[in-house]
Amino acid sequence: MPSYRAVQATAPKGNLELVERDLREPGRGEARIRIQACGICHSDAFTVEGLFPGISYPISPGHEIAGVIDALGAESEPWRVGQRVGVGWYGGHCGHCDRCRRGDFVTCREGRIPGISYDGGYAEYMVAPVQVLALIPDELSAVEAGPLLCAGITTYNALRHGGARAGDVVGILGIGGLGHLAVQFAVRMGFRTVAIARGIDKAELARKLGAHDYIDSRAENPAERLTAMGGAALILATVTNAKAMSAVIDGLGVGGRLVVVGVSAEPIEVAPLQLIGGRRSIQGWPSGVAADSEDTLAFSALSGVRPMIERYPLERAAEAYARMMSGEARFRVVLEMGA
To answer: Are 156 and 134 in contact (CB under 8 A)?
Structure first.
């Protein structure tokens, strides 16, 4: 078989190295994808740093994958060779656990994740179950589509299920890799979008992204400012700082919801009275399945939502990963295969 290039994590807390691998044929219900782009996500640290249990090394990280179907195994209908497809965090479900039996595939007890359960997108090719494929619209390039398959679907799905209606005040806490997309989605969904971040330096960017208001959490109390606007129907927390999440809870209006998509190991602090009196709630939201990815991509193509990206070739994957982890990237880092 011909070979292809891949970047693999060699061991927990090991190196990312460029290697040659033999191409394999897809099995039953599988597709082989010629990868054109793969976004780098902070969650790739689960693989590179060995933070997720049960990973078999060596393995290629990556779950923001955009490419073209190169080959198909048996029983892979209705997919066709040549279709543009993406693969995100959702990497397959078992179909028989109690959650799958209720149709909640993204929380499957035996759920699989590209780049963790099997080789992901830091490569020129990958093989994935056809159940995880999402069609990419022609209006989106592969480089644009990649980050939308994780950062995009996470924020879009959380916003559309968050209970807010067009015209409601919606706060976006954090203007980074997730937040800069969340602001765009919220504006195009018809919400009065309030961007919240530390410092005045992101105010101009927030307004360029479409935010109607900006709150500098260093200069003023964000909860008091949101309350003066009538209270937020929804605050989407994209930051990884639990204290910042705790600080905005009092800015929720009656029935308001804090939806958490930013990962933090620290606890969110809230007193019961903060929730009871205004019927407020706190909810976490995972990514979504392939159909949700297709919805995200279609909405982005239709409405003009695009990620801000920095591009790197595959052979510089270790440098690109370090750039993303540094927090200095504006705002997503994407590997381009063949660049």
So the answer is: no
